[in-house]
Specification:
CATH class: Alpha Beta
Shape: globular
Order of helices and strands: EHEHEH
CATH architecture: 2-Layer Sandwich
Strand content: 15-25%
InterPro entries: DUF2007 (IPR018551), N-reg_PII-like_a/b (IPR011322)
Organism: Rhizobium soli
CATH superfamily: UreE, C-terminal domain
Number of helices: 3
Number of domains: 1
Radius of gyration: 12 Å
Largest sheet: 3 strands, antiparallel
Pfam family, one: DUF2007
CATH topology: Alpha-Beta Plaits
Helix content: 25-40%
Protein name: DUF2007 domain-containing protein
Structural class: alpha+beta
Strand order of the largest sheet: 1-3-2
Length: about 70
């Protein structure tokens, strides 16, 4: 899996998820349960991961959707 986004914004993660679903790209949002451990302070970011072999395609989709500033290098 390749990390494309690290964020706490549920709307951003929802939009990215929807774009990947529409493109048929497998993804997962890691570290969603970490808020239980940290006390819901929002200090630990969630990681948006896509399948490695379609990582470049997923990155292009997110850029085309105007989310370039949210992408990890």
């Amino acid at each position: 899996m390749r990390e494309l986004i690290r964020a706490n914004d549920p709307v951003l993660l929802s939009v990215a998820s929807s774009l990947m679903k529409d493109a048929g790209i497998h993804f997962m949002v890691a570290d969603q349960s970490m808020s239980v451990l940290e006390g819901s302070l929002g200090m630990l970011s969630k990681r948006f991961l896509v399948e490695e072999e379609r990582g470049d395609e997923a990155r292009r989709i997110l850029i085309d959707a105007g989310l370039e500033a949210e992408l990890r290098p």
